[in-house]
Design a protein that fits this description.
Strand 2, helix 2 and strand 3 form a beta-alpha-beta unit. The chain starts with a strand and ends with a helix. It is globular. It has 13 helices and 13 strands. Helix 7 runs parallel beside helix 9, helix 7 packs across helix 12 and helix 9 packs across helix 12. The longest helix is centred in the first third of the chain and has 22 residues. The protein has about 325 residues and is α/β, with parallel strands linked by helices. It binds NADPH dihydro-nicotinamide-adenine-dinucleotide phosphate and guanosine-5'-diphosphate.
Length: about 325
């Protein structure tokens, strides 16, 4: 049987890197869309850290540019397309609401259009989010729970979600929306709260910082590990029929308690170092998210494997090692050597 081919947008992000690794392990040919940035080398860091950058074919393109997407699809001729590219940070979406709409929302429509035009038999995965539940309408959110987005990011993602459903129903595209709850890892962006915490606690441990500043620590999230979650994306595209799935752990934890796990792992007192900064509160908050992954378990055979404690510990120790290494690299002794 000939190799399967996948095209991933957002391949330089956290999920893109882990998904590319998973697909390469399954012997796929992997193409990744990369938008133009002034520092082209920096964006490959995650792929480099997994040691897979040489095994991927990168294609220049941007979710805001339909013509580049059509060309990317024509070039890759993908069996599967994973749309992970986005302006993905909720907080930034209040500062850049229109860009978020154009890339996170309309970008998905561009990609669906490019498939409709150039490769209608390709299978399509849309990276939807639990943020779409926002002001939650049910205590535990499933595929049947109504949405109530609370940020420009969530509004944009909701448009992309419904376009995915609509292209499936209108044109028969094999298009799936994966409604993924928060998922983290050592490759998570430093601006997201788990990574900000593990990096911040590691800095305090090494004496590089004295305090960690956070906003609303009463918010609760259902946190899983990104490596587990990319497995679910792939499984969705292997089914007989295209459907939407919630991917979650079924456990919710406050930012406060997640933060305490990190301080405990480091053997430090949270009370001594944590500072609440009102500037970091959001214009509208998503107070609590808790997903029900029963459908994914029943139909995909998917279950989360990594606990929050294991994940925070992994992230903390990875940050600690990275910071130690970079401190050594910048020490006067090293500079002379
Ligand atoms: P990241 O922020 O780590 O990655 C986003 C990716 O999108 C990067 O590769 C980025 O490229 C790329 N990108 C940004 N703008 C454009 C553009 N104009 N054209 C093409 N690509 C672009 O996100 P994650 O890996 O964490 O998440 C993957 C997807 O899943 C995102 O869509 C996110 O919104 C969604 N999601 C994530 C969840 C999570 O908890 N992680 C939960 C639910 C959904 P560059 O590196 O050059 O900036
Ligand atoms: P989100 O769920 O996609 O918005 O993921 P984040 O990791 O950015 O935020 C998760 C929760 O942590 C939200 O409710 C934030 O308000 C809360 N939070 C509290 N302090 C901070 C902070 O300093 N940075 C971030 N990113 N979030 C914070």
């Amino acid at each position: 049987m000939s190799k399967k081919t996948a095209l991933i947008t957002g391949i330089t992000g956290q999920d893109g890197a882990y998904l590319a690794q998973l697909l390469l392990d399954k012997d796929y040919r992997v193409f990744g869309l990369t938008p133009r940035r002034s520092t082209s080398d920096v964006n490959l860091k995650r792929l480099e850290s997994l040691g897979i950058v040489r095994n991927i074919t990168l294609i220049d393109g941007d979710l805001g540019d339909l013509s580049s997407l059509i060309r990317a699809v024509q070039m890759a001729q993908p069996d599967e397309v994973y749309n992970l590219g986005a302006q993905s940070f909720v907080q930034a979406s209040w500062q850049q609401p229109l860009l978020t709409g154009q890339i996170t929302g309309l970008g998905a429509a561009h990609l669906l259009e490019s498939l409709r035009i150039a490769k209608p038999d390709a299978r399509f995965y849309q990276a939807s989010t639990s943020e779409m539940y926002g002001l939650v309408q049910e205590p535990i959110q499933s595929e049947a729970t109504p949405f109530y987005p609370r940020s420009p990011y969530a509004v944009a993602k909701l448009y992309a979600h419904w376009m995915t459903v609509n292209y499936r129903e209108s044109f028969g595209l094999f298009a799936c929306s994966g409604i993924l709850f928060n998922h983290e890892s050592p490759l998570r962006g430093l601006e997201f709260v788990t990574r900000k915490v593990t990096d911040g606690v590691a800095r305090i441990k090494l004496g590089l910082e004295k305090e960690l500043r956070l906003g609303n620590i009463d918010a609760k999230r259902d946190w899983g590990h990104a490596r587990d979650y990319v497995q679910a994306m792939w499984l969705m595209l292997q089914q007989k029929e295209a459907e939407d799935f919630v991917i979650a752990t079924g456990r919710t934890t406050s930012v406060r308690d997640m933060c305490r796990i990190a301080f405990d792992v480091a053997g430090l007192s949270m009370e001594e170092h944590l500072v609440i900064d009102p500037e970091l509160f959001r214009p509208a908050e998503v107070d609590i998210l808790l997903g029900n992954p029963a459908k994914a378990k029943a139909k995909l055979g998917w279950e989360p494997r990594v606990s929050l404690e294991e994940m925070i510990s992994e992230m903390y120790y990875t940050d600690l090692e990275r910071l130690k290494t970079s401190a050594q690299a910048h020490s006067p002794v090293q500079e002379q050597a």
